[in-house]
Amino acid sequence: MFRLLLLSVGMMFILSACATPVEADPNAPVTNPTEGAAETPAQVNPYQPLESDAALQRGEVFIDSTDLLILESYPVQINLVLQGNLPTPCHQLRIVANQPDENNRILVEVYSVADPETVCIQILEAFEVTYRLGSFPSGSYTVLVNGEEIGKFDA
Predict the structure, then answer these.
(1) Among 31, 91, 120, 138, which residue's beta carbon has the most beta carbons within 10 A?
(2) Span 4-22, pLDDT tens digits
(3) For the residues of 119-150, what is the DSSP string, one character each?
(4) Rounded CA gap, 148 and 146, in Å?
(5) Residue 23 domain-assigned?
(6) Is there a domain that residue 39 lies in?
(7) What total of structural domains would you count in the chain?
(8) In this prediction, what percent of the chain has a pLDDT beyond 90?
């Protein structure tokens, strides 16, 4: 038992001697990992319409449920959770959220696009998306998805 303990301690010393410490540059500025990284439009809205959509056919989206998530942050962040189905697996989801209008209504348009020349299996493709609406100035807001009111929130 004593030999096993002595052997274990000896192995720790040998292994620690092989490790070389990494020293930080004392003159290097401390930065946030995301600082300086530019947000691309795909990071802001991966479902935004693309220029290439002009060659695609616009289609419907079958929305089964919607939910507004109010994140406990400052300023308050609002997320929209959408669950539903695309007409086929070949359809791509598109989401466009407009700025609040004069009545503080946020109109969100949800649709799909697909290449009409592509042969695709005719089966619904389920999706669940959390879409970041962002933060808003103080006030009461109403969110509408494809013209249907889905909820209200106060900022």
Answers:
(1) 91
(2) 555 555 555 555 554 444 4
(3) ------EEEEEEEEEE---SSEEEEEETTEEE
(4) 6
(5) no
(6) no
(7) 1
(8) 66
